[in-house]
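Fill-in record for Schlafen AlbA-2 domain-containing protein.
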Amino acid sequence: MMFTALHRALGFPPGPITVELLDTAVEREIEEADDLDWKSKLPAAADLKNSDFSKDITAMANSGGGVIVYGVTENQKRANGRRDTGELSEAHERSLHQIAVSAVSPPLFGLNVIQVGEDGNRAVVVVVPSSTEGPHLIYRGEYFGAPIRNNADTVWMREREVAAQYRARFDAAHNPSTYLYELYDETSTDRDTADRAWFIAVAHPKSGASRTVRWSQEQARNIFKDAEKYTLAVAPRTTAHPLEFVDRENPRPGLRRWIAPNTQITDSVRSAESWISVHFDGSVTLAAVVGGRYRNPVPHGESPTHKAWQISEQVIEAAVSDFMALIRSVGTRIGAVEYEVRIGLPWHGAEPLTLYRHGAYGLDEFNGSVPIHRFIPVEATVEVRPNDDDRFCQQVGDLALDCINQGGVKFLHLIKQSDDDAAIK
């Protein structure tokens, strides 16, 4: 699934781009915007170099990404009809991608070209990602310029706007993790890490995010609902997931974010405490107690099954899976391509962290685990491309392994593995 400017303009949830989507846009006379552009005709492959195609996709990229629809006519910027674009051959599609990398500097990668409809009713939808490499320039003869969207129009950047984008690019290159570290510190602040080991995970879009989105409460609910679906496809509910212990149906507003608050407030299930937030800029945070966990929530008054520094490696796997599922759910909606992530297990007690796994007959196994005197936070760049389930599962497993390997645990026991990974095990 994907969530594009077209879905947003129609008020539709994430899903494929279909001819029905375009027909509905025409019926509602949806207006062009800085991230949505109607074009009646797709330039022929032979005319691409002399057409406005490179200018249009570059303007979208410089403006935070968006959608260009070929095969929809407009009047006063509003969609008012359909026009068949003809068959999009494989060679023609290759030419579109080639223009994006050969006629644009720096090259614009990640263009998604989609043809919908049948003979007589065909359209081509070009989804343009955002980019951290802006400003992108196009050359015309001996001159070059940086186009950008201004509401429904494409205009040329002025010198100060070009300079501002260059500064933003260089600042990002110099301090790629500054915001991520600030987000991590904010998420881990005031956690009682001297009494209980916590799982802290944060993520921020690195590239491909279209823009800040002020989610409604209903949209936040749907983010959590999709995240549950994604995570259970990777890590079955054979151990507790942090997503189970937050109020997903009634998220609370925060500062440019929605917060799914903890629901485990009694002493007997306090060890399952979890907090999740999804930010309007696409960031995601997850904080969950992982030390001193019960196997499952138990009646009030019973003692924890394990010590505060003892952590089930399956619980780590479930937490990583939930975290990545949240990234995928948010990233799909804002068109994010890459995320920077940071995962830590803050603990300031006297004993070293120790991982265990659930063995046979209800017994827990500590054999082979190595005391973790200092957990090294796991940092990585992950991709959240729509419909790439195999890549998603692989990345969830890689992150989880980076965490549990530090405690001497060699293999995953909850997250589904590929046949190759299973054979290695």
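KEY FINDING: Residues 313-334 form the longest helix (22 residues).
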